[in-house]
Amino acid sequence: MKSQNTIMGVLVFGLSSIYSAYLLNGDVNDGTFLVSYWCIAALFAGVHTIQKDQFNSHNGSGSLYYQLTSPRQFATVKSIYNGLFLAILFLFQWGMLLFYFGTSWTSINNMTTMFFAIFLIGMAMGTSLSFVNGIAQKTNQPGGITAILSFAVLIPVLYAAVALMKKEALADQGQQAQWGWLLIVMMNLLPFGLSNLLYPYLWRD
Fold first, then answer.
1. Which of 82, 93, 88 has the alpha carbon at shortest distance from 35?
2. What is the pLDDT of residues 148-191, one digit of tens each?
3. pTM of the model
4. What's phi and psi for 60, nearest 5 deg?
5. Cα 106 from chain centroid?
6. Residue 156 and residue 96 in contact, taking contact as beta carbons nearer than 8 Å
7. CA–CA separation, 56 vs 71, rounded Å?
8. CA distance 121 to 103
């Protein structure tokens, strides 16, 4: 029941963020503004999701999971679950953005590539925040540590997200856009690899 409430809360947050932009800006057709707003809404949705997960872990469920399975298995499943959840949420938010603001402001050449970019952004953010959350749970102040570490790991994810969305949604061919794919792939692989490397040592007790 708590898990269902968490999912519904995050979905409502994702929908209300895009709807609020529509109410505040009406029929705005500035693609750069809308892409930037989508990235900000995605960021807050991702952080909100991890905060809910951290709350559940702090209440004891996280420790039970670590006792039932190996740290590497738990890190893998947790990263994939959070990544997939955020990827679906981001696709939902993007759909709502197109629903409210139309498609006249976009220059999408390949819808499949566009969806794949959003999917990778969600996976990167979910994997990175899961990695940070796992480290923070072994400290005395998990909330503060999560906030500090999240700032560091989310900077490259946001940079890559903005670059990718400008390239795929607005047909921007600048140098920043060219690095977006490489960076987003790295931010999927690096936190995932570090999680599997460090979790056995962090949670061996």
1. 93
2. 777 788 888 888 888 888 888 888 776 666 678 888 899 899 98
3. 0.81
4. 115, -20
5. 22
6. no
7. 17
8. 21
What is residue 155's three-state secondary structure? helix
The one-letter code for the residue type at 187 is M
- According to DSSP, residue 174 is labeled S
Could you give the CA distance from residue 195 to residue 191 in angstroms, rounded to a whole number?
A: 6
Task: Produce one character per residue of 146-165: b if its CB has 16 or more CB atoms within 10 Å, e if not.
Answer: beebbeebbebbbbbbbbbb
Domain boundaries, the chain: 2-202
Give per-residue burial for 177-201: e unless 16+ CB within 10 Å, then b: beebbebbeebbebbbebbbeebee
| Token pair 């708590």 in the structure block, residue | 2
- Tracing tokens 């809404």 back to the chain, one arrives at 41
